[in-house]
Amino acid sequence: MEQVIEFFNKLFSAEDWPARWVCGEWSSFHGWLYITSDIAIWLAYFVIPAIIIFFIQKRHNLPFLPVFWLFGAFIILCGSTHLIDAIMFYWPGYRLSALLRALTAIVSLATAFVLIRDLPKLIETKPEDKLKTYQLEKQVKQYEAEIEALKQKLHNQEG
Fold it and tell me: Ethylene receptor 1-like N-terminal domain location, by residue (predicted)?
């Protein structure tokens, strides 16, 4: 228990380790490749949940909503581990990294469990009638616009 208390008391302390740049034989190319790749992965891992949230807000009555939120949390936490890996080249926050990884593991397992549990229900789910209606309405509007364009073209040719 003493180690757990010490861990959280020193969560943001980096005094016990050197920065990653001074550990080993990093060339500038290798180090910057590592850093920029991790930052790019982190960026993608934050954009993807934003898209999921946008989708959830636009689509009402979405079935299996908790699965979407778990995916979002899973992706954000995965991205956070990449961000902290890039930061550790300058600030060796290994305790924070360990905590992020533990949280990522918990949410990852929870997401996998929920997917396994809900997969049979997801497979059985049929497309909603509203979605079909929306698609048909969209097609009708498209056809109406095309008909109007043709009428306008005929009118211009007659005049």
Answer: 34-124
Length of the chain: 159
CA quadruple 42, 45, 51, 56: dihedral sign: negative
10-residue block means of pLDDT along the chain (159 residues)? 93 90 92 97 94 81 77 93 96 95 96 89 69 75 86 80
Question: What are the φ and ψ backbone dihedral angles of 92, each rounded to 5 degrees?
Answer: -80, 75
Side chain identity, residue 123:
I
Burial class, 18, CB count within 10 angstroms (exposed 0-12 / middle 13-18 / buried 19+): exposed
| Spatial CA neighbour of 70 closest among 52, 83, 82 | 52
- Cα–chain-centroid distance for residue 73? 7
